[in-house]
Amino acid sequence: MFKNKINLISDTVTLPSKGMLDAMINAKLGDDVFREDPTVIELEEKLSGMFGMEAGLFCPSGTMCNQIAIKGHTQPLDEMLCDINSHVYQFEVGGYAFLSQIAVNAIQGNQGILTAQHLQDNIKAKQDWLPRTKLVVLENSGNRSGGNCYNLDQLKEISEFCRNNNLSLHLDGARIFNALIAKNLTPIEIGPLFDSISICLSKGLGTPAGSVLIGKKDWINDCRRIRKVLGGGMRQAGILAAAGLYALDNNIDRLREDHSKAQRIEGILKNAEYVESIFPVETNIIIFQLKENVSPQNFVDTLKTHGINSSAFGKRSVRFVTHMDITDEMMNEVENTLSSFKM
Ligand SMILES: *Cc1c(COP(=O)(O)O)cnc(C)c1O
Asked: Residue 210 — pLDDT band, cuts 50, 70, 90?
C-alpha cells in the first residue's frame, strides 16, 4: 500500500496550500529592484509595522537576512557575541568572517539562552590589540537548543545592557512567531527591544521561500545595497511576497497545533526506554538524546522504514520538527511507531 511519507526533518518541508497558491497567482507584481513591486512593499510594511519597526527588506532566505544584518551592524575587526549553538555561528558557513570580516565569541549560554551577565563577562575592553565588541545576536526560538524561547524579562534585560554599552542587538527570529505563541507575547512587545530582526516565512509559516529583515529606515536602506551585492535583488518577487502576506494572515495562530503535536511526541519519548533525555518542548522542535546502545543513525534509518523521516542531530541526538503538513493520521502513525520501537 502507498504510504504517505511523514516528514519530520524540518518545518521547511511544507508545500504551499491551495489558498496560498491562489494568493501568489493573483499578486500585483512589478520590478522590486526599482521598488515597483507593490506586494513586496506591502509585505515589508506589514511585517515591520507588526513589530513596531520602521522598515523591512524582503530576502530570499533567513541566512541572507542574518548575514546582511551582521554586515550592516559591523565594521571589519569588530566582534559579534552569540550563543555557541546559534544558527549564525553553526549553520551559516562562517559567513560572519567571509562577508563581514569580524571575529566571533560564541558563548555557552543556558541551553541557547544568553543573559546580560554572559554579555558583561564577554564584552572586550577597548584596546588596540582586541577586536571591538559591537554586535549581539540572539536566537528565538533556539533551533539547535530544542526550540526553547526567551521570556520578556530576559529580552528586556539584554536590550538594556546593549543600549547602555553601545552594542547593536540583532534577533535571529527565524521562528519568532513560534516563540511569541509559546510565551504568550505579541510582536509589538519585543520589536522595539531590538535594532533588527530577521523573520523566516518558509519555516512554520509555510511559504516556499523568503524571509524579511526589519529595522530602522536608514539602516534598511543601507541593507538593500548589501542585499544587491550578495545577488539578492529580485525582480517580480511579489509572487513570493504574496505567499508571505497570506501566511501572516492565515498561518500564525495555527502554530499552536504544531506545538501541541510536538508535546504529544514529547509525552511518548519521555517514557520510552530508548531515550536518555529530552530538551523540554516549548515549540515545534523536539531534540532528544538516545541511550548509549542506540545509534541516532540506526534509529533514524529504522523510522524511515516506517515512512517517517527525521534527522540525526549531533553524535547522540535526534531532531523532530512538527509543521502544518503533519496530519492527524500521520500523528497517529508517529505515536504508534515511537511507542512500539524496540532497540
Ligand atoms: C532556518 C534558520 C535560519 C535561516 O535559514 P534559511 O534556510 O537560510 O532560510 C536562520 N536561523 C535559524 C534559527 C533557522 O532555524
From this structure: very high
How much distance in Å is there from the Cα of 60 to the middle of ligand 1?
11
The answer to whether residue 1 is domain-embedded is no
**220 Cβ below 6 A of ligand 1:** no
Asked whether residue 194 falls in the same domain as residue 299, the answer is no
Range of the domain at 153: 18-250
CATH code for position 225: 3.40.640.10
C-alpha–C-alpha distance, residues 183 and 106, integer Å:
25
- 336 part of a folded domain: yes
Instruction: Compute, in angstroms, the gap from residue 62 CA to the centroid of ligand 1.
Output: 5
What is the tens place of the pLDDT at every residue in 144-171?
999 999 999 999 999 999 999 999 999 9
pTM (whole model) above 0.70 = yes
Burial class from Cβ neighbours inside 10 Å (0-12, 13-18, 19+) for residue 178 reads buried
Question: Measured between alpha carbons, how far is 101 from 80 in angstroms, rounded to an integer?
Answer: 11
Select from 96, 113, 138, 172 the residue to mutate for testing ligand 1; criterion: most ligand atoms less than 8 Å from CB: 172
- 126 vs 170: CA distance, rounded Å: 22
Question: At 319, which CATH number?
Answer: 3.90.1150.10
Regarding whether 181 and 53 lie in a shared domain, the answer is yes
The residue contributing the CA closest to ligand 1 atom 14 is: 174
Whether the CB of 211 sits within 6 Å of ligand 1? yes
Tally the domains of the chain: 2
| Among candidate residues 215, 235, 250, the one where a domain is terminated | 250
Count Cβ neighbours within 10 Å for each residue of 221-250 and write b for 16 or more, e otherwise: eebbebbeebebbbebbbbbbbbbbbbbee
If asked whether residues 138 and 283 sit together in one domain, one would say no
